[in-house]
Amino acid sequence: MTGQHPPRYAGGPCFTCGRPWPCFERQVASLVEFAGMGDLLVAYMGDWYRLGVEERRRRGLPFDPELEARHLGWLDMVLPARGEQRGGDG
Length: 90
Ligand SMILES: [Zn+2]
Hints:
Blueprint: H1 24-33, H2 38-58, H3 67-72
The structure holds zinc ion (ZN).
The site of zinc ion has 8 residues, from helix 1.
């Protein structure tokens, strides 16, 4: 599992490098960890995004307009192109 660059708390900064989470290093690590499992990565980041919105609200932090793009905006690169036909031997 990805042991490096965990979030300090959902919706907060990276514990390791202090940048908004998921930081670039974590995004790259996640792409490696979930290679070939784009659907799972999207579900995983979707959970973190939802938790992040809730946690920021609970902590009284302002809404972060970058939160969604940071969690989900870069995931289209791991998903198959829209309209692509699924293979026959699945
Ligand atoms: Zn980091």
